[in-house]
Structure formats: C-alpha cells, structure tokens
Amino acid sequence: MSWFGTGIRRIPGFRAPVQPLPPLILSMMPLGKRRDTALGSDDDDASEVERAAEEAEENALELDEANEPDE
Asked: What are phi and psi of 51, to 5 degrees?
C-alpha cells in the first residue's frame, strides 16, 4: 500500500516577495468619427475597386479568347 499526500502549513517569518503590479487600466482607442478629419462624399475607393474589377474581367476574357483551340 502507498500513500501520497501534501501538507500545508505556515512557515514562521516567511514573507512573499513583493512584485510591482501591472497597470490595471487598458488604454482605449476612441471610436467614432474624428472631428478634425473630413471624409469626402465621393466614393474614390469604390470607383477604383470597380475599375480594377472591370479590367480584371477584360483581361480574363482576352486570355480565354487567346487560349481557345483552333477549329
């Protein structure tokens, strides 16, 4: 028969080392619209994406036509 156990007791005169606590407040990024920046009403990014998609589609069609087998 085997016994395994743990004994817990106070050690007289022992003091745990004092460690500085990390800051408990996390920095936060403000959300919402900044007052010092103005957003343009035109959708420059959307129009650029649309143009790039059209060009990619045209390039894909050209590649398909070039790779068609000759009959």
From this structure: -65, -40
